[in-house]
Specification:
Helix content is 50%, strand content 5%. With 157 residues, it is mainly alpha-helical.
């Protein structure tokens, strides 16, 4: 099975080339399955464009997939746990902050502020993006404490 990547700037005919190639492959017969991988919002548009060509009456060996659907087909129900989305992370962190507000030193006073969960969720996502762990955060906090003690000569945190 061959994989072909079509790359180029906007308006250079990438979509038309893909649609034409798929239509020609469907006409050529052969039992090899075809997969057209498109962004989530473009699946319906691609299906419609292929079926609007008069040379295609229908198809059974073509799968037009988004990246999320491809992941589901490859991983299926074997995934250990479902991925928590951005909104889910915000909701979880907001609830944890409300429940633990008495135990939070720095954020305890601003737990009632709206948007704190959103901001903290973005920080957690950024830690993950850059491969940082809580140990890294604790190490950085320790370094800040040492630096503050050297500057002020007294405990500021």
């Amino acid at each position: 099975m061959a994989v072909q990547f079509i790359l180029g700037r906007s308006g250079t005919g990438k979509t038309n080339y893909c649609i034409e190639s798929v239509v020609e492959s469907l006409q050529g017969g052969g039992g090899e399955p075809l997969i057209l991988l498109v962004p989530e919002q473009a699946t319906y548009q691609a299906e419609r464009a292929i079926l609007s060509d008069e040379r295609v009456g229908g198809y059974s060996r073509l799968c037009i997939l988004s990246f999320a659907r491809l992941e589901f087909l490859l991983c299926g129900r074997r995934r250990v746990r479902p991925e928590v989305g951005r909104l889910g992370r915000q909701m979880i962190i907001s609830r944890l902050v409300r429940e633990k507000k008495d135990e939070l030193g720095v954020f305890g006073s601003c737990c009632g502020r709206s948007g704190l969960g959103i901001e903290l969720a973005e920080v957690v996502a950024e830690f993950g993006k850059y491969g940082k762990s809580w140990e890294d955060v604790e190490e950085l906090g320790g370094a800040f404490k040492e630096q503050a003690l050297q500057i002020d000569g007294e405990k500021t945190f």
